[in-house]
Amino acid sequence: MKSLNSIVMSGREVLPVIEGGKGIAVSSGQSSGAWAAAGGIATFSGVNADSYDENGDIIPQIYHGRTRRERHDELVAYGIKGGITQAQIAHEISGGEGRIHMNVLWEMGGAERILHGVLEGAKGLIHGITCGAGMPYRVAQIAADYKVHYYPIISSSRAFRALWKRAYHKFADWLGGVVYEDPWLAGGHNGLSNSEDPLVPQDPYPRIVELRKLMNSLGLNNTPIIMAGGVWHLEEWEDWIDNPEVGPIAFQFGTRPLLTHESPISEAWKQKLLTLKKGDVYLNKFSPTGFYSSAVHNDFLDELKQRSERQVAFSTEEVGDHDTAFSMGARKREVFLTAHDKERAEGWLSEGFDQVMKTPDSTLIFVDKPKMAEIRKDQVDCMGCLSQCSFSNWAEGDKGTTGRKADPRSFCIQKTLQDAIHTSDIEHNLMFAGHAAYRFATDPYYANGFIPTVKQLVDRIMTGK
Q1: Looking at the domain assignment, is residue 414 inside a domain?
Q2: In this structure, are 227 and 365 located in the same domain?
Q3: Contact 10, 101 (CB under 8 A)
Q4: Which of 179, 191, 187, 155 is nearest to 256 (CA)?
Q5: Nearest to residue 98, comparing CAs of 137, 53, 128?
Q6: How far is the C-alpha of 14 from the C-alpha of 317, rounded, in Å?
Q7: 279 phi, psi to nearest 5 deg
Q8: Which of 23, 94, 104, 398 has the highest local Cβ count within 10 Å?
Q9: Edge-to-edge strands of the sheet including 363-367?
Q10: Domain span at 390
């Protein structure tokens, strides 16, 4: 393999390998500190990061506020305290090596307040901000105000052009790099646009070349592109290295750092990763963010699929084919279905899915009593973890609502991601992973269940494997 030379990023010469910043404490100060100590760029998650009590135990994020707004303020306070804590841990473990970045989602609730709070409380400990899941226009000014570099996550040159024209051209000196995240291969939330087919992946190379041409036209010839999503063996990307069409390049690893000694995920999660097969990571659109996301196929996703499959369109009036009356709920409110859909609905009722819930799209879904009780409770308990949420209809603005009916086809993402990282229940929670996760089972490096340290993994990656 071609020699992969070091690169200057966030003000320091580092290895061109970056730890992806997975959310809800999945990339911690411990794991990212070890990555930085190995000479690369580490990224801890600034999304509801963990903090600890005087005994070193994780402080549960429990909410006491009576209103969503009060609970949202509690969430922001947890986020700031946790982000500062993880930055301090990463800084201590890194020993001054590498660089430490914080990852935030622009669509997370209180993103700007949390960014300000963490950067103020951890001055000098964080060298870069990675930000995606939305169009983070204002992250450039926030980063510049605190004299740290910023790294927008985009999935097309068009998205970067919009960000540059709107804001980034004013803060070009602090643009540390541009993360191109393959929307068909990356784990977590994906940046597929409405014009792109989720079932027809596109080759990242021409998309990267298009991005580089745009960046060069803006005078960003020396600004690195970070390739993210689907990166496993660097030897598979050899043609990208020292390629004038690509320009300065670094590579981000999101999935492989999950399987290390320092990774904070449960032993059950780690063992599950070693058994995945190709296709076990499922690209879906159940997320309350409205984005596509990639997660490991399990009972949690199966239930969401089945919930949406038990769905029929309805009309409040007799119109066209919707000419068959159907009574729903304790009050036996009448709506109209097609004759075929009424037959399907009666079948679901007979199977025990006898609770009928309306969606914002004039459809009905059918669930059993325990599931409806869970959905209702989760919606009521909303703490505003997103800037706007289709599941609970929370929105961060003055009105506190999206103005749409809450969508029971989705789920409380805060609840399930907290449970995924802090318990061993990996079947009934959302378990994000990139689409290359099946390679744990086929890569000889992980034979016989071998789990490396972060240092061993970085050393291995730098060999091209």
Answers
A1: yes
A2: no
A3: yes
A4: 187
A5: 128
A6: 65
A7: 95, -5
A8: 104
A9: 311-313, 363-367, 355-358
A10: 299-422
Residue 219 lies in a domain: yes
**Tens of pLDDT, residues 288-307:** 998 889 999 999 999 999 99
Number of structural domains the chain divides into = 2
Give the C-alpha separation, 345 to 242, whole Å: 60
**444 and 380 share one domain:** no
Whether the Cβ atoms of residue 126 and residue 49 lie closer than 8 Å to each other: no
Condensed to tens digits (0 to 9), the pLDDT of residues 318-354 reads 999 999 999 987 788 899 999 999 999 999 999 999 9
Same domain (yes/no): 257, 125: yes
Whether 337 and 196 share a structural domain: no
| CB of 283 closer than 8 Å to CB of 294 | yes
Closest C-alpha to 107, from 382, 378, 389:
389
CA separation, residue 392 to residues 133, 284, 411, 423 (Å) = 19, 19, 8, 24
- Residue 254's domain is classified under what CATH number? 3.20.20.70
Would you say 128 and 40 are in contact if contact means Cβ atoms under 8 Å apart?
Answer: no
Q: Is residue 390 part of a domain?
A: yes
- Cα distance between residue 147 and residue 142, in whole Å: 9
